[in-house]
Amino acid sequence: MYMPVPVHSEPYAVQRHRQALADLGTHALIVTGRSSSRTNGSLQEVLEVLQQHGRSVTVFDTVEENPSVDTVVQAAEAGQQAGADFVIGVGGGSPLDAAKAVAFLLAQSDLTTGAEMLYRSGNDRHVPLALVPTTCGTGSEVTPVSVLTRPALQTKKSISHKIFADLALIDGRYLATAPLSVLRNTALDALTHLIESYLNRQADELSRMIVDAGLTLWQRYRHVLETGEADENERQGLMNASALAGMAIAQTSTTIPHGLSYSLTIRRHIPHGKAVGYFTAGYLAAAEEADRQYLLCKAGFNDLNDFQQWYIRLYGRIEVEERLLRQAAEELWQNQQKVQTAPFAVTQESLYAMALFSRQGMET
Ligand SMILES: [Fe+2]
Asked: What is the pTM assigned to this prediction?
């Protein structure tokens, strides 16, 4: 068990732990998206704290959904030119994953081969890094993983380096302005992290206890996904479920549903949580019955059908042609490291069967 990130999860976490944030360096590079961190107030709060402590700031605010390697290299170049000595990622999973890769690049002396360095094994050195999540799904603030898009290869892939943040400040208030679709997609991502961490060859008793706690919170606050109405406590609870899910996958990694989802996200632009959730039923169907029942029950579902009906009600049906599912299975088969994390025997055909199972549930 290794989770070295100091985590503060409470309303006004940025203000309450401002000294810890300011202590990370003298010139911050803030890595964020175009608009949501402005709408939810997180960017302003971070800027105010840095100003109060006399820190210089450069803001890189053009991180896109499913950030590309090119974006990360651009952000690192901007930070290097400005003389940034620490990085603060603010936003959903995309800015947070990008911020980890940027923190890694800023610790390298020469950025001319930045894109290749991300995928070459070697040192995991990075400049100090703080992460401030504003959605309730990725758990990126407590995982060492940075998934980037490589447009030339039409795929998403984790960089080769494990980057744990030096500080995570989790404030559920930032969810207040999140659109309902974002709440739903990200909370479903958190649920899939819990399920995939449990149904995982690398799971152990301790990581499963984290999953258990995460599912308890997830079930307690899933009603928020019906309308989006929530109080401060419920929002913080969703954030905590997401963080626990992140801590669980930090130990085990994700597995087959995540691996199958990348095709849907890249080729059909289906949001990450919704795409992973699509494949979750097929993965659960392939698992041992006792595990399946435990996970579904713990998350508040009667059975697989109940889960799929809930998915259709909240996320809608997705029409996916068999050809794309076959392609997803073929591509995932190339990534044996991910395939082998499933706790049961898997073949390329059984991957396809899991995808087809999910598709059939969408038709009934
Ligand atoms: Fe995910």
From this structure: 0.95
